[in-house]
């Protein structure tokens, strides 16, 4: 019996990346699969693998920052059989090890689902398209839609599913979500195609669609500070606000391509959770900005800060303004 530990971000990119991999390299009935995931911002996931669990395991890590896990990766490499790491977030701490294989690309037009698709030569490409849409890379997804000859309806369905699965990943804890990301993965991988998820009246799609429509309606009535340079939205400390924060940021960035977008969500801890979207016309720098603050990180086009002291909000907005304006 082989032991597989699959570590993945709880958003659309993480879930759809693992679905692509496991449809191409399935776990047999004689093997053991262990899933490690969490809410989208729970990225120090390799720390959840202890030495005993890592022993002789084949580990896959998808769509979580290498820089946030580098020390734990070094630790588990001394015990595991192999470790494959695929991601697109900031990675300044990469190193080599005989048991480590990395596929990392931090370009703003790349997501983990696309990297996995390139490895698999389009074998499960529809899941990749849903991942790309879920990560807010609409222009990149559209190129694949055209290349594959998909209909407008199929395009819209894949985009909606990507957005909804991504939406499910946002929250302070799994209790904020409609589905635990591990459970959502296990339900979705049973479908032959992402399009089949939408046509099944009993699929998670139906629940997520209803929740998303309710939450986005509330977000659109929230306080919004708009000027010629940037957009700042203030959301309250409620589960619906935590769920919609990142997805709403993606939506505003898509409709305002020349402006950075900042989503500020009140935390019960007395701080703010920040989601930053770089302008689509200049999709760089989000991770550089957020990494200047404690608990911050991300990728070129989209990044965040888990706990920004409220006294630092004005400073953060000024850093954003100076970077892009």
Summarize the SSE layout with pairings.
Layout: E1 3-8, H1 12-24, E2 32-36, H2 51-54, E3 58-62, H3 70-77, E4 82-87, E5 100-104, H4 112-120, H5 125-134, H6 138-148, H7 152-167, H8 181-188, H9 194-199, H10 204-219, E6 223-226, E7 231-235, H11 239-255, E8 261-266, E9 271-277, H12 286-290, E10 296-298, E11 302-309, H13 313-324
Helix pairs in contact: 1-4, 1-5, 1-8, 4-5, 5-6, 5-7, 7-10, 10-11
Structure description:
It is a single chain. The chain is an alpha/beta fold. The chain has two domains: 3-207, inorganic pyrophosphatase (n-terminal core), CATH 3.90.1640; 220-324, Diaminopimelate Epimerase, Chain A, domain 1, CATH 3.10.310. The protein contains 13 helices and eleven strands. It has helices at 12-24, 51-54, 70-77, 112-120, 125-134, 138-148, 152-167, 181-188, 194-199, 204-219, 239-255, 286-290, 313-324, and strands at 3-8, 32-36, 58-62, 82-87, 100-104, 223-226, 231-235, 261-266, 271-277, 296-298, 302-309. Helix 1 (12-24) runs antiparallel to helix 5 (125-134) and helix 4 runs antiparallel to helix 5. It starts with a strand and ends with a helix. The mean pLDDT is 97.
Radius of gyration: 19 Å
Oligomer: single chain
CATH architecture type of the largest domain = Alpha-Beta Complex
Which range does the strand content fall in? 15-25%
Ends distance = 57 Å
Elements, N to C (H/E): EHEHEHEEHHHHHHHEEHEEHEEH
């Amino acid at each position: 019996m082989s032991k597989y530990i699959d570590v993945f971000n709880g958003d659309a990119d993480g879930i759809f990346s693992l679905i692509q991999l496991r449809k191409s390299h399935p776990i047999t009935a004689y093997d053991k699969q262990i899933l490690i995931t969490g809410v989208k911002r729970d990225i120090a996931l390799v720390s959840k693998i202890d030495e005993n669990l890592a022993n002789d395991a084949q580990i896959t890590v998808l769509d979580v920052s290498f820089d946030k896990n580098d020390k734990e990766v070094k630790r588990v490499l001394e015990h595991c059989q192999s470790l494959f790491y695929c991601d697109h977030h900031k990675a300044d701490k990469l190193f080599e090890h005989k048991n480590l294989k990395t596929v990392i690309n931090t370009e703003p037009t790349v997501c983990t689902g696309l990297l996995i698709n390139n490895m698999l030569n389009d074998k499960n490409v529809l899941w990749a398209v849903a991942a790309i849409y879920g990560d807010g890379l609409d222009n990149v997804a559209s190129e694949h839609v055209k290349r594959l000859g998909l209909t407008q309806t199929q395009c819209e369905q894949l985009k909606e599913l990507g957005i909804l699965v991504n939406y499910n990943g946002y929250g302070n804890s799994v209790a904020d979500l409609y589905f635990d990301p591990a459970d959502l993965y296990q339900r979705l991988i049973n479908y032959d195609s992402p399009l089949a998820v939408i046509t099944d009246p009993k699929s998670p799609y139906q629940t997520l669609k209803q929740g998303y429509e309710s939450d986005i309606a509330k977000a659109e009535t929230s306080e919004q500070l708009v000027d010629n340079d940037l957009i700042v939205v203030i959301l309250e400390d409620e589960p619906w606000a935590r769920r919609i924060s990142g997805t709403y940021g993606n939506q505003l960035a898509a409709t305002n391509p020349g402006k950075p977008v900042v989503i500020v969500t009140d935390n019960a801890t007395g701080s703010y959770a920040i989601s930053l979207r770089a302008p689509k016309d200049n999709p760089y720098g989000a991770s550089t900005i957020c990494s200047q603050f404690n608990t911050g990180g991300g990728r070129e086009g989209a990044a965040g800060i888990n706990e920004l002291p409220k006294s630092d909000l004005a400073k953060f907005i000024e850093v954003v303004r100076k970077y892009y304006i």
